[in-house]
Amino acid sequence: MDQLAFGQNYCVDQNLRSSDCALEISGLSVTYGERPVLIDIGAQVPVGSMTAIIGPNGAGKSTLMKSSLGIVPRSAGEVRAFGEPLSRQMHRLAYVPQRASVDWDFPTRVIDVVLMGMYRELGMFGRVRPQHREKAMACLDRVGMADYAARQIGQLSGGQQQRVFLARALAQSADLYLLDEPLAGVDAATEKAIIGVLKSLQAEGRTVICVHHDLSTVPDYFDRVLFINVRKIAEGPLETAFTPENLQLTYGGRLATAHINRLRTAV
Amino acid sequence: MWDAFLKALLFQSGYNASLVAIGAALLGAAAGSCGTFLFLRKRALVSDALAHSTLPGICVAFIVMVLLGGTGRNLAGLLLGSAASAGLGVFVVHWLSTRTRLPEDAAIGAILSTFFGFGVVLLTVIQSMRSGYQAGLESFLLGSTAGMLFEDALLIAVGGALAVLFVLLFRRPLALTSFDPEFASTVGVRVGAMDLAMMLLAMGVVVIGLKIVGLVLIVALLVIPPVAARFWTDRVEFVMLLAGIFGGLSGYLGAAISASAPRMPTGPIIILVGAAIFVLSLVLSPRRGLVVELRRRRRAQARLLAGWPVDPQPDAASAPQACVRGHLDPSR
């Protein structure tokens, strides 16, 4: 029975046309040295969906995102966005790295970080004009950080830093947002603010993909899930793919059945 | 001595001293502004490996030129050799830290000392060559301004100006690469090219600085100015400008001091002036300085003892600055 459910989800997803996919990954493999980190990952993310990438530590969630974007080299596989090779659609993508990946003592102000999101617009040598600043301020306002525009970024709390990163992504005016653990280590108020912004992006027809680690909030925040643990375990809409079986397959025996059942009732 | 110092400052202690002062100031300005991005990208120590790796190249270039029948003292040839072995040194550090399990700092330590040791051995070999011209190669270790020529000053001026122009033009992608390289690559910055450019700039500064400061101390001229500048500003463009100014000032003042006292080594004096600027910044900076920090701590302690409510984060948690919104935005 498990096998059947699994197979069905898989088939439903394979039926998507390439042009309906904001992101389409096929046969993606990544190796670090001799160690395979990702093996033959395939996934289809429909336009306008909000997808959580879920898996245990070391499952390759961040690597999936980075290798899709070409930050980490792939040893095999193809990635397409909006029906075209990803390299030709990079201008429609916004990536939010993990907050801990940068040095927050870097000499820059909040508004300068948001302006980094407009690099394509500004070009290498273009002057920052008033309309650019206004757009950056509007993005900060959307995440509730407009009052902090002139602060040095090191003075911000973790949650505020995450919101500034989100504002930078908003400044990119992208159609597909890829966020690596945007809710890691932020307080409840910030979590609510960030999810509010992400849902508003979805309401505008944009596509959101998050690496997410908190299983209990998945049903509230997302409408699709992609389970991975080095290989792809399952993907699909919440109702069919967020199942105890798939959780068990992804996390192995490490997730207590009682816990899984609690999550199941939440769906 | 004071008179001599003032004279040197005003370019009145002779042709050579003036050349040295101008050359040192330009070198310092170039090193400070280029060093800013190395410092922010946390690559400052790589430039030390780079500098020490120049020595074998200088020696090999000398030997080759002598074997070809020359005097071995052609500056362009020596600098070409130094750049080649510096490039090799940095490449080996890069290879070791990315392809093996050796962490970068260990790779730097190993390569720096190996190349430098090999260079010193070659120096000894050269001394026994009896070509008659070997005197002076050691001056690349700590620099020597005694026989500085107009061409040397010109080389520093042109090289330094090109380096400063480059960082000024490319400051946006350079800053983005230093702050968040992964994000930078997704918005179209060629991160690999920027990293390579940073290394080539450092190599250029090291090579043109060999004559004045020498390969042992040149890293200080790349690192100290941006570190001192960081105390005064929170914006990367201003760190870059201020680092250029601090570097230029170190070179200029250092050259003047060494010109006004007999047998003072120019390179080390320049570095000491830079260090003095660093110490002043460390103590006096209005935001990050030791004095302010101490006063802040004292005040918080006094409040605590007096039973007043204590602000957990005196700066970050204070009332938001309303003025940044709208037309009063100071960032405009």
TrEMBL record, chain B:
Domain of life of the native organism: Bacteria
UniProt cross-references to CDD domains, sorted A to Z: TM_ABC_iron-siderophores_like
Cross-referenced InterPro entries: ABC_BtuC-like, ABC_TroCD
Pfam families documented for this protein: ABC-3 (PF00950)
Keywords from the UniProt entry: Cell membrane, Membrane, Transmembrane, Transmembrane helix, Transport
Location in or out of the cell: Cell membrane
Segments traversing the membrane: 20-40, 49-69, 75-96, 108-129, 149-171, 212-231, 238-257, 269-290
Main localization category: membrane
Membrane topology value: Multi-pass membrane protein
Family that this chain belongs to: Belongs to the ABC-3 integral membrane protein family.
Protein name: Metal ABC transporter permease
Organism classification: Bacteria, Pseudomonadati, Pseudomonadota, Alphaproteobacteria, Hyphomicrobiales
